[in-house]
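Q: Could you fold this chain for me?
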Amino acid sequence: MEKNVTVSILLDIYGKVLTDKQQDVLDLYYNENLSLAEIAEEIGITRQAVHDCIVKGEKKLFNLEEKLGIMKKLDNQEKQLQKILLELSQIQQKDSDKHINDIIENVVRELNCLV
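A: Sure. Below is the predicted structure, expressed as structure tokens.
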């Protein structure tokens, strides 16, 4: 997974653990695609301070993920759900029983809400 996407997801998961400034800077950098200079101007700090904030924030996010593994667990759950949905679809295609197909359709609808 691309680093920008990874950091953006980690920010969604663990962002509240960061300082307000780290959260704002990482959001502007990774989600709004602003440059260091643009962030520095918007927040009123130096480019170096923005860089330091990004480095410290990233480190904290990656350390939290290493210890807690929430993003990895969510990714694994999504993969398992996709596999279940595929298998249900295959059952539905092979089975002609209307009642079973209705049940499968309801289960698929509920599972799709989780993905």
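A (continued): The chain has six helices and no strands.
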